[in-house]
Amino acid sequence: MFNPVTPLSSGVSGGDVTFPDPTSEKYPQLGGYFLGFFAAIAVQADDVTIDCEGKTIGMSAEFHKRQRFFAVIELGSQPFIAGVGPPQFANGLLTTTSVKSPNRVVIKNCKLGLSSHHGIHGNNANDVTILDTEISEFEVAGIHFNGVSNVNISGVKIGPNLQMTFGAQLSQATLIDHTMNTLLPMNPDLNAHRYNAKVTLRGEERTVNEVLMKLHNDLRLFYKNVGDAKTIDYMYGQNAGKNAKNLGLPDGSAVYGIIIHKTGPAAGDFASCRLEDAEKGGLQVENIHISDVQINDLALDVHQMTRLLVQGNQVMGPAGDVFDFETVTDDQDRYVGNPLSDAELAIGAFKAYAVEQGTATDQVTYFFGGTHVPQSVLNWAADNSKSWEFQPKTSSYDYDDSFSCFGDAMSHANKGAIGLFLNHIDSGTFSKITVSGIRNEGKIDADPSKCVQTPYAGLDARGVLTVNSPKLSQDALKAAVTVSGINSTYNGTVMDFDVMTS
To answer: Is 290 exposed, middle or buried (0-12, 13-18, 19+ CB in 10 A)?
Structure first.
């Protein structure tokens, strides 16, 4: 089982961390490793064959808890193409290399196990063959390809996915801790400001360092399974208290057996890219061949996050982590908080302080990423008797502030459970495919007095979905795929086959 251990040259985490050393030349922060060891095997050379000879590859249980973005096999040198992904990847200052995508890759005779995201993932690879392989215990997708043409998948069994796991808040806490407590100390001048910058929360003024170290220490207790469980329940997110281990179904935007998608990540809503635009941009994929494949027993509990939009942007932390309004407020919309939301607010105050102190723009961008915490939010959180109120539009304030509830904790549009998802496919053949036992236990989590999202796909379950793929014969696809047992617990849309075009 994959369980990397590396020494650290920086930070307050000591040896208790599984991210690459921030000074590593082999695993460079600016070359795709900001999110840590994102794969057990990353293929970036051409003409590679991976023959597992029937053996199993997956994360260790300990590493699975700590590394919340991962593919067992990644076809590429990094998990995102340029300009997309979390703020640290989307910004050219922070990811200075382009993804190296391989050609002519064969994966065969493998058993791919525990993974916090994917079994096999890749961007813009070409000529990929997957044979006689079993993929299970993943949280997002068995096979997920973006912009990958000339694909042959045969003799593959996918499922069940992992159905007892951690909530999104653990991922948010881990990325904040990595950024603020491992990377930031590499810049002594900026790091020194954490002891001077202050934030007031619930009527108590604290230094930013105190708030960040509270989250850090809680995370260490969580990793070690020690301490008062009540103090670290927030790490489990919506799964907290559901059972003895505080684990539950994955709570992200979607689960897929196989997803073949146009160039770019599948983070937006269905058909968010028009067919005409994709064709003009050369984003369509072709020659997708899937035969003798079983996809079975996929389940998730999609969590609908209520977010604040203030000054035209959502309130969030450095890695695009959404500030979870519903969880951290009482029934009168007063700030109650937890150490995770406290840290997000403290980082907002820290960013403003660093800018006031004249910190260089590139350093602010690197360490604070997508952080957006306006002063109005800090003023509200400082006063535990103050209910949240949106600022009215005036001649000097022209923003449409509101609540939004379209997606998950990392701003992916909620799409539900899907066995086989074919997006922007120009050509392909399909035969002897079975899709069964696809279940979505997601429900409407948003307070309807604050936010009603229509249409909303977070409750839905589909056996087969094709989007903007008009050249695929739907009759041939229906003849090739047997679908059964598609279920939405809370009355979402349930379809064996669905077709969308935009």
So the answer is: buried
